[in-house]
Design goal:
Rossmann fold, 23 helices
Length: 553
């Protein structure tokens, strides 16, 4: 494989680790735990893995090693996130430290690899090639959900064949929920296989009191913020465009908020606030057009708007429209497919309830079409395919035209749209993610050595220098509650949305009017690996505000 000069230099980076993992570690067990909600029901569903203690590791005098080798399997599940390769390197180094003959097997292309028995042994040569690199290409990832007993049993066949006694599932809230169900099932049949989860997703919505952040969020936000900063500098140089920038984040707006904290855009919409205030699309357009009008009055016909990917589904009226569309298409897809392309819009308008029909009719042609495109396997609209940035830019233009006719707006409006998502998901990990991921993987191997199952690997205190980080494990059942999914109550890990009374949002709220009126852009520049620690090791703003109440460590 040909590598860039930076890749070669970066390959020799040794991730920083919590002090407790450097030498010999011993486990310290806390008190029994309860799930966040629905305790009785969750206890009943997870009789073997409920109530276990939170654990942490501390340095010890004894020997960490195991008398026998341990074979471990690893799966990357869901969307890519920077640092995944370092989680795998951490597991590898951890189990080799436990016993030199331990082996690590990677299942290919996500959970499918376990079910279809496609795997490869990850040897030292392979691991070394991928240290500190972005992407999930070492074994690939996939979105198949591990949820049926048939899949679990098929998986067990290959685990037994390879003599694997522990499986690490690296994924988001859904994948870790399924990891917990799998851990419970294997424990209930005495399968002799432990299951450990690792918190991954650029969306940042897998976090709670024990899990400070999901890996990949830090790097992805830094990459998007670099790009937004570059756009802002261009914007402030040419002074003639409004940039509408959508950033990934399937439902929660953590990425949009973090990018706003890093770059000070003129406008950032937060979906959770839109839902809480029951705002309509019209309200959002009014707000954006209002800021543009005020800036135009000062001769500032340029600016930036950050839009979270999941926005559409948080606008109550749009949510209702989408849910009626989902329902309608689930039953009438064949008939809809037969309607000729030019007639599809009118066909839908004629089929929806009057209120939803009116909203649908008011949408620009392209967005109306995107709302009727192929559903995901659960029959839901795929939000990442909806060009919300174009929708907003077009509707804002119409509003400004109307205001211009009334004499309310006298500026010039020219817009450019962007969508940042895939640009950041496989970026080379920042030092924070390289260190955090390696520690998560290494800790997973320590949890395996301690005989734990149904735990998520956890690293806390991450705004402090890495040697002070706290390595441990959290029972996954502790993060669970019951939620209605596809008409059924299911035990799931609660998704963390942006909290409107949390420090990051409040910080943004206090400053957003000033950022709208002034041009107070910040240009974060690219992620750095060489240089002062204030430049290279700084964790993101969300984390610093959440943990320390200030945006700087
Ligand atoms: P995960 O939660 O699985 O990590 O994926 C997050 C994400 O990157 C979202 O931000 C985005 O909406 C989605 O994946 C895109 O999915 P796909 O990779 O299938 O295009």
């Amino acid at each position: 494989m040909t590598r860039s000069a930076l890749q070669i230099a970066r390959a020799s980076y040794v991730p920083k680790m919590p002090e407790a993992l450097r030498g010999n570690a011993e486990i310290v067990e806390g008190a029994a735990t309860e799930s966040v909600l629905n305790q009785e029901e969750i206890r009943e569903l997870f009789p073997n893995t409920y109530g276990m203690p939170v654990v942490r590791f501390r340095q010890a005098a004894g020997e960490t090693g195991l008398p026998d080798p341990v074979n471990v399997g690893v799966i990357l599940s869901g969307g890519q996130a920077p640092g995944g390769h370092n989680v795998i390197a951490g597991i590898f180094d951890g189990i080799k430290r436990l016993h030199g003959d331990s082996k690590l097997y990677g299942f290919i292309l996500g959970p499918d690899g376990l079910v279809k028995h496609t795997y490869k042994e990850l040897t030292a040569d392979i691991i070394d090639e991928y240290r500190n690199t972005g992407g999930f290409d070492i074994i690939g990832s996939g979105r198949t959900k591990l949820e049926t007993q048939e899949q679990f049993d098929r998986g067990l066949e290959i685990l037994k064949k390879l003599d694997i006694s522990a499986l690490v599932i690296i994924g988001g809230d859904d994948s870790n929920t399924n990891a917990c169900v799998l851990a419970e099932y294997y424990a209930s049949i005495n399968a002799g296989v432990q299951v450990i989860g690792c918190p991954k997703t650029i969306d940042g919505d897998l976090k709670n009191e024990q899990i400070e952040t999901s890996f990949g969020f830090d790097t992805a936000c830094k990459v998007y913020s670099e790009l937004i900063g570059n756009i802002q500098r261009d914007c402030n140089s040419a002074r003639k465009y409004w940039h509408f920038i959508k950033v990934m984040g399937r439902s929660a707006s953590h990425i949009a908020l973090e990018c706003a904290l890093q770059t000070h855009p003129n406008i950032c919409i937060i979906s959770e606030e839109v839902a809480a205030r029951e705002q309509s699309l019209d309200d959002i357009i009014d707000y954006i057009a209002g800021v543009i009008t005020h800036r135009a009055e000062k001769g500032l016909n340029f600016g930036t708007v950050i839009i979270p990917e999941g926005l559409i589904e948080f606008i109550p009226a749009m949510r209702k429209l989408i849910s009626e569309l989902n329902e309608f298409l689930a039953h009438n897809q064949e008939e809809f497919d037969l309607v000729r392309r030019s007639g599809k819009r009118d066909y839908i308008i004629g089929k929806l309830s009057p209120k939803n029909s009116a909203i649908y009719a008011s949408l620009p042609e392209t967005v109306a079409r995107q709302l009727t495109l192929d559903r995901d396997p659960h029959g839901n609209v795929q939000v990442s395919l909806i060009e919300t940035e174009k929708l907003l830019a077009e509707m804002v233009r119409n509003r400004l035209d109307a205001w211009a006719k009334e004499g309310r707006y006298k500026g010039k409006f020219s817009s450019i749209t962007h969508f940042f998502g895939y640009e950041g998901r496989c970026a080379a990990p920042s030092n924070y993610d390289a260190d955090y991921c390696y520690s998560l993987g290494y800790t997973a191997s320590m949890l395996i050595a301690a005989g734990k199952t149904g735990y998520m690997s956890s690293i806390r205190n991450t705004t402090a220098p890495a040697r002070e980080w706290i390595a441990g494990g959290v029972p996954i059942t502790m993060m669970m509650n019951l939620e209605r999914r596809h008409g059924e109550l299911k035990p799931v890990i609660r998704k963390a949305l942006v909290e409107l009374d949390g420090a990051p949002f409040r910080y943004f709220e206090d400053r957003r009017d000033a950022w709208a009126a002034e041009t107070d852009y910040i240009y974060p520049g690219p992620i750095q690996y060489f240089g002062p620690t204030t430049v290279c090791d700084q964790p993101g703003k969300t984390l610093q505000l959440e943990l320390n109440g200030t945006e700087e460590s």
